[in-house]
Amino acid sequence: MFVLALVVIAVAVVFGLRSYHLNTYTIPSASMLPGLEVGDRIEIDPDAYQDSTPQHGDVIVFDGAGSFMPYESETTLKRFQDTALGILGITHQDDAVVKRIIGVEGDTVECCDDAGRLLVNGEPLEEPYLAEPDRPASSSPFTVEVPEDRVFLLGDNRYDSVDSRALLGAPGGGMIQMDKIYGPVETIR
């Protein structure tokens, strides 16, 4: 009887931890101000893109390992710990990044028109969410075509954001593969 009670308590603890930690992230930087502030806790919908595709303007959480964050070597103990926690579904995702989708596959994104606005497929993009709406939407000019199965991402606080612009010359051109998207932000706490 004692063993059964212990198993029930262990299962309850695991599911409690999963429900609290799974799909919940804390904003670590000012790159998404003013909409997301440092310390905000956000929740995502990991199933949102199973039957639909990411859209312009979606704020998403994605795996930034190898692109927005360089790969780091891990000790055997760290890999074992991550694997064990992954089995339980409570692995902390250190490489999670949050940004806004500006371009989807097939789009041409360009900076900037005479008014300082981004152009998506030649049309000016209205961005009421920008941290500094009176400044140009980007400090550096660029023109990119978003390849198949990728998205082009920018932070809302453009003058304090490492995003697709910073990686234009890197493999992948700073654009994230669709399968690296964890999901769109659904709730801010």
From TrEMBL:
The main location is membrane
Question: Which EC number(s) does UniProt give?
Answer: 3.4.21.89
- Lineage, top-rank taxon, reads Bacteria
Leading EC class: hydrolase
Going by the UniProt record, its keywords in alphabetical order are: Hydrolase, Protease
Any idea where the Peptidase S26 domain is? 4-186
- Please report the record's description of how this protein sits within the membrane: Single-pass type II membrane protein
One family from Pfam that matches here is Peptidase_S26
Q: Which residues form the signal peptide?
A: none
Q: Name the chemical reaction catalysed here.
A: Cleavage of hydrophobic, N-terminal signal or leader sequences from secreted and periplasmic proteins
Kindly list the places in or outside the cell where this protein is found, as annotated in its UniProt entry.
Answer: Cell membrane; Membrane
In terms of InterPro entries, this protein maps to: LexA/Signal_pep-like_sf (IPR036286), Pept_S26A_signal_pept_1 (IPR000223), Peptidase_S26 (IPR019533)
Family statement drawn from the similarity comment of this UniProt entry: Belongs to the peptidase S26 family.
Name listed for the protein in its UniProt record: Signal peptidase I
- Name its species: Yaniella flava
Encoding gene, per UniProt annotation: lepB_2
